[in-house]
Amino acid sequence: MSALPIEQIDCRGMQLADLDEVVPLELQCYIVPWTRGNFIDSLAAGYEARVLRSGSGELLGYFVAMQGFEEMHLLNITVAPAHQGRGLALLMLEELRAICRGHAARQLWLEVRISNERARAIYRRYGFAEVGLRRGYYPMPAGPREDAVLMSLDL
User: Fold this and answer.
1) What are phi and psi of 39, to 5 degrees?
2) Residues of the chain with pLDDT under 70
3) pLDDT of residue 6
């Protein structure tokens, strides 16, 4: 499938009404997904949350990030499976970078499952460095928890 022209993509603030589409996509994409309550709490806390939509309104992806002192922490970034491989994660990272500039953030942080090599490669390509490991960070449906790679981007 080809990439959508950039002018046909809209990235805007996530609203409660968006959760009717965001939550099912989250359930589809993750083995231990965020709950509707996690998204509601993030919005109520004022976290930076955006949805990425096509010109026709189709949900392509979303992200949630938490502001700290001179830093931002990316908590969740998701691209709909049917639209992966089109550069939409990079587009959302660019949007987040602009948000970081607006908050005078100097550093962008994230954790990613150690097994998620595809995402790690995207982050490395964007300029993130792998700076640490968080042992047992991610829950699993059964068995031991999975480690997370801590990644950082200087802004």
Assistant:
1) -70, -45
2) 1-7
3) 54
38-61 pLDDT per residue, tens: 999 999 999 999 999 999 999 999
The residue extents of the domains of the chain are 6-154
- pTM, whole model, 2 decimals? 0.93
> What top-level class would CATH report for the domain 6-154?
alpha beta
Q: Which residues contact 110 (CB under 8 A, 6 or more apart)?
A: 73, 74, 75, 77, 123, 128, 150, 151
Residue 142, phi then psi, degrees to nearest 5: -150, 150
